[in-house]
Amino acid sequence: MLKSKESVCYKERLRSHHDALAPLHALVRPAANFADRLYNMSLDERPRTIYLHVPFCTHNCTFCNLNRRRTQPPDDYADLLLQEIETYSTYPYISEGRYDAVYFGGGTPTTLSAKALQKVLSALRSHLNLTPNVEVTIETTISDLTEDKITVFQEEGVNRFSLGVQTFSSKGRYLLGRWGNGEKAMKKITYLLEKGFQDVSIDLIYNWPGQSEEDLLEDLRIIESLNLAGLSLYALILPKETVLYRMIGTGQCPAMGDIGQEKRFFDLILERLLDRGFILHELTKLVKPNRDEYKYVRIRYDNGDTLALGAGAGGRLGNVVYHNPSNMDDYRQQVKSPIGLPTKGLLVNNIYDFIYHVVGRLEFGRLDWNDLKPFPKLQDYLQPLVDTLTANGLIELDSQGLFLTRDGVFWGNNIAREFATTIIEFFRRKGGDAIKHSDIPQKNVPMSHHPATG
Ligand code: SF4
Question: Cα 72–297–257 angle (5° rounding)?
Fold first, then answer.
């Protein structure tokens, strides 16, 4: 919870949208017979995405605790993805739906060979109904994005890149365990733009050990010079099991800056880049208008479907959330089983959808009173929270609702989580059955513009 009025911060900053969504775990219940449910799903108008997971990396970054397999993907990985695509496409709900976004994430999807990537991209187009303006994103690193893969991406309609640059600083790249120097990163970005890929975005990590303000300003100067379509900014999170955490503990590198420095650096990034053509897209994402729509994330927050493929991939179809096994042998066994799909998932209800949507709105920087309309008493119930956040300068009100201030964007995941918790409490107080309430429109409502920052 927020501290007293004098304090403008929470005890601990939540840095991930997963933290904001965590209270929703209480609202799911097990769903057996995944394949039967899928077979019986009737097509509706919800937006849809496809997520392909490639949990392999050619090396391990020192700050990463994702336990990625530091190898090339197994030889049969692309074939397993193909088999999954074929299996899913035998279900009318999957084959007849239209997909507006495809996202290759990981790990590093470009650890797959050019030939494997071509096979998967072409199978997606031949088995599934991709819309003419489908957004196809590839997460990649500078070193794994080779010429033959760029050619495949051109031929197969990839139109969005998310490059894990993290920093252009040699000192920073060395500490974070990134391969290739900043100059190589700049050249690769320029090359992609010259090749006609307009939607090129990078990840930027700030507040890494020993990073000075000058180091950050140099990263920002380079970003301004590169004509990027967008960037995702992440304050370094350093779990205990990471190599970098141990390096700090043994004095091999300087300590990380404290939360005060993290906030100063965050402010510096926003001050610099919001003045230079970028707008806030979501809490950790700045984009140039009309250059980077990032449809994939919008669809997910609008309770759209995500057809998840690959080991460890998580998605949602209809009202069932599901995960593929992370373990490669278990995943292979699932794909090659007679049904070829997960056996179970988790059932979500309309309250879950409603709260997910509210959290999504806040992740995009604002919440309209209209969003709360399905429950007329909810706005009153949220009023004390709204008052506290306003008094602490984290939100401001306008005629249509509320929006996050610059400080509010910094603490955005904390704020979104408080809304989620308070709304769950509202339904619990209404009685046990209210939490299963189903009278909420599930239609997709377009996101509105963020007045404070864009
Ligand atoms: S490339 Fe990404 S997933 Fe792979 S080790 Fe580095 S941070 Fe982790």
Answer: 75
List the residue whose alpha carbon is closest to atom 5 of ligand 1: 60
Ligand 1 mutation pick, 53, 56, 59, 61, max ligand atoms within 8 A of CB: 61
Cα first-last separation, the chain: 28
Atom of ligand 1 nearest to the CA of 178: 6
* pLDDT above 60: residue 454: no
The answer to whether residues 291 and 381 belong to one domain is: no
131 and 275 co-located in one domain: yes
Per-residue pLDDT, 432 = 52
Which CA distances in Å does 231 have to 117, 288, 292?
24, 9, 10
Q: Say how many domains are in the chain.
A: 2
Whether residues 88 and 223 share a domain: the answer is: yes
Q: Flag whether 2 is in a domain.
A: no
The band of 448, judged by pLDDT with boundaries at 50, 70 and 90, is very low
What pLDDT band is residue 199 in, cutting at 50, 70 and 90?
very high
DSSP 23-90: GGGGG-EEE--HHHHHHHPPP-S--EEEEEEE-B-SS--TT--S--BSSPPPTTHHHHHHHHHHHHTT
- The preferred substitution site among 16, 57, 144, 202 for testing ligand 1, maximizing ligand atoms within 8 Å of CB, is 57
pTM of the predicted protein model: 0.92
Question: What's the mean pLDDT in 25-41?
Answer: 93
Position 448 in a domain: no
- Give the pLDDT confidence score for residue 275 in this predicted structure: 79
CATH number at residue 47: 3.80.30.20
What confidence tier does 336 reach under pLDDT thresholds 50, 70, 90?
A: very high
pLDDT for 3: 41
The dihedral over CA atoms of 147, 152, 158, 163, expressed in degrees to the nearest 10, equals -30
Which residues span the domain enclosing 423? 350-436
Q: Judge if 381 and 269 occupy the same domain.
A: no
Question: Regarding beta strands 305-309 and 48-54, do their DSSP bridges make them parallel or antiparallel, or are they unpaired?
Answer: parallel
Q: Write the CA distances from 336 to 86, 322, 330, 385, integer angstroms.
A: 12, 18, 10, 50
**Which pair of structure tokens corresponds to residue 144?**
């794994």
* Ligand 1 pocket, residues with Cβ under 6 angstroms: 57, 60-61, 64, 66, 68, 106-108, 141, 164
Q: How confident is the model at residue 69 (pLDDT cuts 50, 70, 90)?
A: low
292 and 388 together in one domain: no
